[in-house]
Structures are given as structure tokens and as C-alpha cells.
Design a protein that fits this description.
about 325 residues, mainly alpha, A middle domain of Talin 1, two-stranded antiparallel sheet, 11 helices, 4 strands, about 85% helix, globular
Length: about 325
Amino acid sequence: MILALTFLLGLSLLYFGGEFLVKGSVALSLRIRISTLVVGMTVVSFATSAPELFVSLQAVFAGSNDIAFGNVVGSNIANIALVLGVTAAIFRVKISNQTFSINYPFLLFISLFFGLVLYFFDGIPRTLGLLFVIFLIFFIIYIIKKSREQNLKHSIEENLLNEINKSSIIRELGFLFFGIMLLKYGADLLVNSSISIAKIFDVSERVIAVTVVAIGTSIPELATSIIAAIKKEDNLAVGNLIGSNIFNILAVLGVVASIQEIRIIDSAILTFDYVWMIGITFVLGFFIYLFTKSNISRLEGLILVILYCVYMYSSI
């Protein structure tokens, strides 16, 4: 009973955290003249990837490397197949030109590079962890510069500027900070209660990581994307998810590996879970470039959710 209440409390905190995060992000992006897509790819992605970072750090220090890897790989699968799938099935998500030409190709490149590192090094050495972080820094600088150049060419609607000018930047940063805090503590409650529930059924650390923990740490992305879609902020909804997957690999595993080398213990992380992750990433690419271009349709969203259900069934 206590575990169930803790689980529900965690969900509630994550929902309200997503609400505050979206409000602060949209207002801040208009104020500093960068697109909501870039804010979703940076500030929001880092915030919603914070649970994965805390979980992975704690897991590595505790000697549970499979939880660190399974958490990130499982979360990346959940972000696309479950979170984007559910969001698209309900709202039909638009794909921006920047996602089409820059963000998705970079996600695919990083995902393939991640697989090569796992295959040849059986984990992530500290030097490559640092390289991951460097990749992330250059990518963030590039997309912010690109966004500011584009926004100099296109004036922002006057009524939006007037609305933002009336608000306080302290208020906007307060929304961001409060949203991040709610997401952090909500994720902690959800993950801890989920792990306790999963252990009752006596399953392995890898299975717990790629299922229960991955879903738990992806709830912030789900809450943020659905709220963004409700508010018609499609760029924020998509940017949050693609950015979160990039952050999970480059920031979460990059930072953790920079501190302490991560080694694969259960080979299924590479031979099964990673294969599913890269496969789902390719499926997303097919939907973006070959089928209903410039958006993810409701049918495609349902297909992604079905694929996630198949993955979950196969894992358990």
C-alpha cells in the first residue's frame, strides 16, 4: 500500500514538474530569441535526463553497471517508442526542419557511434566518456548559434513579445527551477518504489533497468511532451525527446564514464537491448523521411507503442 502511494505521488510530482518546465522554457526561449525547439533540445532535455543521470551515477558507484547501461538504453527506447508513440497517437506531432536536417541525423550518428564503442571496448572507457561530453558541448553551441541566426531573420510576433516583456525573468527561471526540482524528486520516488515492486518478482538488474527504471525515468519526458503537445508547442515536444536521447548517451553515460569507467556485465545489453534501441531509432527515421513526412501520424504513433509492447514482452 505504501509503495503504491509513493508510486502515485511520484507520478503527480512529475506531471506538475512538466507543467512548470514547459511554462518556463517557452517564455525563456522567446525572451532570449531562440526557438522552443532549441530550448527543448537543451534546457528541457537536460532537466528530463536528470533522473537518468542520478540513477546511473548511483548504480555505477554501487557496482551495478548493468543498471547504468540498461537505464539509458531502455530510456532511449521508451522515449521514442512509448513517449513519442503515445504523444503522436493522441495529438499527431509535427517535425520541424531543424529536426529533419540536423537533430535526427545527429541522434542517429551518436547512437551508431555508441554501439561501436560498446562493441569494441565492452563498455565506455574514461577517455571516450570525455569525448562524449565534448561532442555534446559542440552540438549545443552549434544548434544555439543556428537558432539565433534564423530568429534574426524572422521577427517574433509583437503580441508575444509584449506578453513576455510583462513577465519577470526571475519568474521564468523560477518555473524552470521548480519544475526541475519536482521532476527530480518525483523521479526518485517513482524509481525507488518501482524497483522495490520489481524486486518482489525476483528479476535481474538488467531487466529492472530496461523496463521499470527506464519507464520511471522516462515519465518526465512523457509528462513534458504531452503537456507541450496540449499547448501546441510541437517543437518542444519533439525537441525534448530527441534531445533527451542525445543527452542520455552523451551527458549521462559521458559524465558517468568520465568519473568511472563503465563495463558491460550482461551481454544482452549489447546483443538485445542496444539492437532494439538502434532499430527503433531507424523506424523513427523511416517515419520522418519516407512515410508521413514533416509529422508523426497517429497510426505511426500506435505502431511505435506496439513495438514498445513487443520489446517489453521480449525483455520480461
